[in-house]
Amino acid sequence: MSNPAIVWNYHLDGAGGGQQQTRHPMVHEDKPGFDWLHLRSDDPAAVEYMREIDLDEKMIEALSAIETRPRMELLEDGVLINLRGVNTNPGADPEDMVAIRIWFNNQIIISARRRERRLLSIDDVRQSIDQGKGPRTPAEFVGAVVEKMANRIGDVVDAIDDELTSVETALDERNNSVRAIQQRLSDLRKQTALIRRYLAPQREALAELYRSGPHLSDDDRHSIRYQTDRITHYVEDLDLARERALVLHGELQNKIAEQQNSRTYLLSIVATIFLPLSFLTGVFGMNVAGLPGLEYPNAFNILASGMGLLALVLIGYIWWKKWF
Q: Angle at CA 47, nearest 5°, toward 46 and 50?
C-alpha cells in the first residue's frame, strides 16, 4: 500500500510491540492488538484515503482541519482530541507549536499532522513501539503522546525561567546594553504568550478527556490526570514568567528613564557653567565702537582670566550645593 498521505501504518500487538503493515487499518482479523494510522492531513490524497476506509465525514473534516485549537470531542464511536506540542525541530522556534489531531477507540488510532509540521513526541512513541516498549492500548497511546509532549513543554518552560533569571542579572550589571536587554525581554514575553495561548485550552481538553472520555481504564485516567496536572503547573509557571517579565519591563523602563535624566542633568550642569561665559564672549565679541579694552594690549588676558575665575566660582558653588 503506497500512499503519499500515509506517514506510517502500524499494527500494535497489545504487548508493547508492533510492526508496519500494508493492509488497510480497521480490517479486523483474528489477532490481538489495534491499528495506528498516521497521516499527512494536508496531502491531497489524505481525504480520499480516509473516505476509502469509511471514516465519517465529520471526522474527516476534524482530522484535516487547517487550524485547530486544543479540544476534546466525542465523535462517531470514538474520541477526538486536538493537542499542541512545542516545536523542537532543529532551527524552529519552540513557541511555533505543532498541532496533532488524534481520533481513537478500542480498535484503532488515527493521528494527523501537517506535511511540514513534524511532532517529535509522536516519533518518540513510534521508537518505543519499534523497541517493544510501546503502548498496549489506544488510550495508553494517547497518554504516552501527552507525556512526551509535556516533557518537552517542561524543558521549554524551564528555559524561559532561566532566561528571565539571566535578564534579571543583566539588569543589575552596568556594562550591559539596555537595548539588547530590551530585545531579549520582548522575545521572552512573546514566547511566553504564544505557548500559553495553547497550553491553557489543552489543559481543559485533557481534563475533559479523563473525566468523561470513553475507552479509558482507571490506570489510563490516572495517567492522563497526572499529565493534566503537569500542564496546569506549566501554565502557572508561564503566568509567573509573564508577571516577572512585566516587572522586569518596568525596571528596564525606569533604568532607561534614569539614564536619560542623568544625561539631561549633566547637560544642565554644563549649561549652567557655560551660559554666563557665553554671555561675556557675546558681549565682548560685538564689533561696535566704544568697547572697553580695544586699545589695551592686556585686555584679552584680563577677560580670559576673569572668565576662568568665574567658571571656577560656578563649579565651586555647584559642588557646595551637591548638585553632582
A: 85
Whether the CB-CB separation of 17 and 132 falls below 8 Å is answered with yes
Residues 315, 212 share a domain = no
Residue 184: per-residue pLDDT: 87
Q: Number of H helices and number of E strands within the chain? A: 7, 7
Which set of grid coordinates corresponds to residue 47? 481525504
pLDDT surpassing 70 at residue 51: yes
Has residue 94 got a pLDDT over 60?
Answer: yes
Q: How far apart are alpha carbons 129 and 112 in whole angstroms?
A: 18
Amino acid at 153: I
Count structural domains, the chain.
Answer: 2
Q: Residue 192 in contact with residue 174, Cβ under 8 Å? A: no
Instruction: State the Cα–Cα distance between residues 236 and 200, nearest whole angstrom.
Output: 9
Q: How far apart are CA 167 and CA 172, in angstroms?
A: 9
Instruction: Find the helix or strand (DSSP H, E) in which 104 lies.
Output: strand 98-104
Q: Are residues 250 and 188 in the same domain?
A: yes
Q: Does residue 301 or residue 203 have the better pLDDT?
A: 203
Across 227-232, average pLDDT? 94
- How do 108-113 and 34-40 pair as beta strands? parallel
Q: Is the domain of 250 the same as that of 297?
A: no
Residue 85, exposed/middle/buried by CB under 10 A (0-12, 13-18, 19+)? buried
> Binning pLDDT at 50, 70 and 90, where does residue 155 land?
very high
145 shares its domain with 293: no
178 and 226 belong to one structural domain: yes
Q: Which positions ≥6 away from 30 have C-beta within 8 Å?
A: none
The domain containing residue 318 runs over which residues? 286-324
Query: Residue 241 pLDDT more than 80?
Result: yes
Looking at per-residue confidence, does 134 or 173 come out higher?
134
Assess whether 321 and 250 both reside in one domain. Answer: no
